[in-house]
UniProtKB/TrEMBL annotation:
Keyword Acyltransferase: no
Keyword tRNA-binding included in the entry's annotation: no
Protein name, entry field: NAC domain-containing protein
Keywords on record: DNA-binding, Nucleus, Transcription, Transcription regulation
InterPro entries: NAC-dom, NAC_dom_sf
Length: 216
């Protein structure tokens, strides 16, 4: 759990809104969007690059990443916790060449990035295009459903991917890709997108916890 985040006023407000919904009451998309628009606006007021005392760790659960941060970004549209999350097209870069000024690298070596996914083939393709300038990301297994504890609802999926270089050699770069189960919008279809916003958690396996070594 990310305890410091749960203590913020805007998180408390959102938790209170959710508490008002009974277990049997359906979640209406317009209510969800409105709640997260407020969240997005409030998040802009905080300086996330300096948030938290020494020793603080950003370590959200899968449910929190999906039902809180990703949904806020996807439907709110504005910046979410700048200084913690990056927001750009991940697939324009090989993982080792992601610019330092685009995303914060946390002490556990992970980078949290909001990114679109384009279809492999614009018309009718169910596969995402995950090529980079000098390699590609490949699924390790089928997506795993993420189920919310409160009502047993599947809110999204988590997929595991590995990065292969231009010679098709598997590297030490790995990724978790989080997607909501919401169907694609008409705008996504028109732009040839599989999803206009997913959350990628990129990291390097078995790396040393020396930050300078990442950029070598």
């Amino acid at each position: 759990m990310s305890t410091p985040i749960s203590k913020t006023s805007w998180r408390t407000s959102w938790d209170a809104d959710r508490a008002l919904q009974s277990a049997a009451e359906p979640r209406h998309q317009d209510q969800i969007r409105e709640a997260f628009r407020s969240l997005s606006a409030s998040a802009k007021l905080m300086d996330w690059s300096t948030f938290g005392p020494v020793g603080w760790r950003f370590n959200p659960s899968d449910i929190e990443l999906l039902d809180y941060y990703l949904r806020a970004k996807k439907y709110g549209g504005g910046p979410i916790c700048e200084g913690i999350f990056g927001d750009f097209d991940l697939y324009r870069y090989d993982p080792q060449n992601i610019p330092q000024d685009k995303v914060h690298r946390h002490c556990n070596g992970r980078m949290y990035i909001f990114t679109p996914i384009y279809k492999l083939h614009k018309n009718g393709s169910k596969k995402g295009k995950r090529n980079t300038p000098n390699g590609h990301w490949k699924m390790n297994s089928s997506p795993i459903p993420v189920i919310e504890n409160n009502d047993g609802q599947t809110i999204g999926t988590r997929s595991s991917l590995a990065f292969f270089d231009g010679h098709k050699r598997k590297t030490r770069w790995l990724m978790y890709e989080f997607r909501l189960v919401d169907p694609p919008t008409q705008a996504d279809e028109n732009e040839g997108m599989m999803d206009h916003c997913v959350l990628a958690v990129v990291y390097r396996s078995k790396e040393h916890r020396v930050l300078d070594s990442y950029w070598k």
